[in-house]
Task: inverse folding
């Protein structure tokens, strides 16, 4: 298959190139140049809002994996218009081009942020959606457009809702990087980590390699038109995360700060559907992923 990955220079996109290129023809587009040297010839610098260029890329593809997005909750609150332009208009542009060029499968990378504060745990795909931030709203709008193109234009799709994925390929320079990236960066610099609130808020952490692996399983499976959570199925509090990091690298100094606006209190995925339909099981534990992060950046 010919597979086009949007957001291919990002942490998830780069692992998708690794995961899929062994068995498929893979190309990527992104606004940024790739950090992985081996990906230099695989990625074209294209904005997903550029209709003409996107259409040309889609003409080649059998499968689109749409991972490009504005991914920061904080940024979406600061600039909701930009968030909507990228996450809604950009997604619509990819969907329209996919339909016109005859793409066989559209894989939309959504987010657990569409759920908002859970009414129960673990969160399954039938859980009501009630996003708290403009980011969650824009990702949910993207999901609805994907479903609409599926129903109106017979475009096969998957909607994947990753929970908190991490990897060494996340940009440590970004002020909007995830909590694990921030913690690792500060520990390596000999600085205290900053825990916001009481630290008892939970997240379902999963390595980006495992997210890419699940997406590969979806593409290679005979099933279509599903919404699937992607997580570890285990909740970890931020305090527990600090303890795991301390067990790997010794004493970790902790500072406390106030909670962030728009943040969700608890988040744990029910991954039963991914297990049942795809045979998915995460392969990298949080301890193993963090240990490799510190030891060799893998």
Result:
């Amino acid at each position: 298959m010919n597979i086009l990955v949007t957001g291919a220079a990002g942490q998830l996109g780069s692992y998708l190139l690794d995961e899929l290129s062994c068995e498929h023809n893979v190309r990527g587009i992104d606004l940024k140049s790739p950090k992985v040297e081996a990906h230099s010839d695989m990625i074209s610098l294209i904005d997903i809002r550029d209709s003409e260029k996107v259409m040309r890329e889609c003409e080649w593809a059998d499968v689109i994996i749409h991972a490009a997005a504005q991914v920061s909750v904080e940024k979406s609150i600061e600039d909701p218009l930009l968030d909507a332009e990228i996450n809604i208009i950009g997604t619509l542009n990819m969907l329209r081009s996919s339909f016109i060029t005859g793409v066989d499968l559209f894989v939309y990378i959504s987010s657990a942020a569409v759920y908002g504060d859970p009414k129960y745990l673990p969160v399954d795909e039938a859980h009501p959606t009630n996003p708290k931030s403009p980011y969650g709203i824009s990702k949910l709008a993207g999901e609805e457009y994907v479903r609409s193109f599926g129903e109106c234009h017979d475009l096969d799709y998957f909607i994947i809702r990753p929970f908190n994925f991490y990897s060494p390929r996340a940009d440590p320079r970004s002020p909007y990087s995830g909590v694990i990236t921030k913690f690792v960066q500060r520990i390596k610099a000999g600085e205290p980590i900053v825990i916001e609130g009481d630290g008892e808020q939970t997240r379902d952490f999963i390595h980006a390699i495992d997210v890419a692996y699940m997406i590969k399983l979806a593409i290679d499976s005979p099933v279509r038109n599903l919404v699937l959570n992607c997580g570890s199925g285990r909740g970890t509090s931020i305090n527990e995360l600090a303890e795991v990091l301390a067990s790997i690298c010794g004493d970790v100094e902790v500072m406390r700060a106030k909670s962030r606006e728009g943040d969700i209190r608890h988040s744990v995925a029910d991954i039963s559907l991914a297990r049942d339909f795809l045979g998915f099981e995460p392969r990298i534990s949080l301890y193993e992923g963090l240990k490799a992060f510190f030891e060799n950046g893998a």
Summary: The mean pLDDT is 95.
